[in-house]
Design a protein that fits this description.
alpha/beta; about 15% strand; globular
């Protein structure tokens, strides 16, 4: 059908920043390959490794020989430079019309991707975000303190900045490439506030945002990157965004790849 031909013409780039994800990487790549193949779309998985001391890069290279260099692409950086810069770095090398961002530690299950892609196509959304806080979504493996912290963080962001999504701190997203190309040059945040700034800017610029319920599962392998110092960094980040002009962005490109 014409629809399936169009889908194959459209390409999806998955940005997968890694730091000490040796155990998780083979499984997340297998699941991404399975789900995106099921969707019958053209895709690439871009692994951005920050010089992981646990040998993540060697695992990525083995996966590249299994799945092929056209499916698995690797960008290695000299050290741990943070999530935000990893996405910006990945965008330089991504060739897709759409950009998928998710965590490499299996907390975001790729089984939700057919829903992301289906919703985006049905509503021609500019951004589709996963949410833990709508019917059908949830969090597994967190203690009450961590759950409460997340809820309070969401409440603080919504009350301070206005609600662009039911899950302001979520980081499982599908973007039209043109959206990120317009927003990323203006970004001021780092760390966990980075994705929140993107969704706030997307809303301020009038982009259409769709939501898919997701189940967030705490990592099984490796150590969590979340530390208490992140909370103070988060609060500082929200306060900084309160004083930031969210409508500031690069001019609209004359033609966008993804419609």
């Amino acid at each position: 059908s014409l629809a399936s031909i169009f889908l194959r013409m459209v390409k999806y780039s998955v940005l997968l920043p890694t730091y000490n994800e040796r155990e998780n990487l083979p499984l997340i790549v297998y699941l991404l390959n399975r789900e995106l193949t099921k969707c019958q779309v053209d895709f690439e998985i871009l692994i951005i490794d920050d010089n992981s001391p646990d040998g993540t890069l060697a695992v990525a290279q083995k996966l590249q020989t299994v799945f092929g260099p056209e499916k698995i692409r690797i960008e290695s950086r000299p050290g741990k430079l943070g999530l935000g810069t990893a996405y910006i770095h990945g965008m330089r090398f991504a060739t897709g019309d759409f950009i998928i961002i998710l965590d490499a530690d299996l907390s975001h299950h790729p089984e939700a991707l057919p829903q992301f892609i289906g919703l985006q196509r049905a509503g021609n959304y500019d951004v589709v975000t996963g949410t833990r806080y709508m019917n059908g979504g949830g969090v597994w493996g967190w203690n009450m303190k961590r759950k409460l912290t997340s809820r309070v963080a969401n409440y603080i962001a919504s009350a301070t900045l206005g609600q662009a999504s039911t899950d302001m701190t979520g980081s499982y997203r599908l973007y039209k490439r043109a959206v990120l190309e317009r927003i990323l040059p203006s970004m001021v945040s780092k760390g966990y506030v980075f994705q929140m700034e993107i969704i706030m800017r997307a809303k301020a610029l009038g982009y259409r945002i769709g939501e898919v319920p997701i189940n967030f599962v705490d990592r099984v392998f490796g150590e969590s990157k979340f530390k208490l110092s992140e909370i103070t960094g988060y609060l500082r980040g929200v306060w900084m965004l309160f004083w930031t002009d969210m409508k500031k962005a690069s001019p609209l490109p004359t033609a966008t790849k993804a419609q």
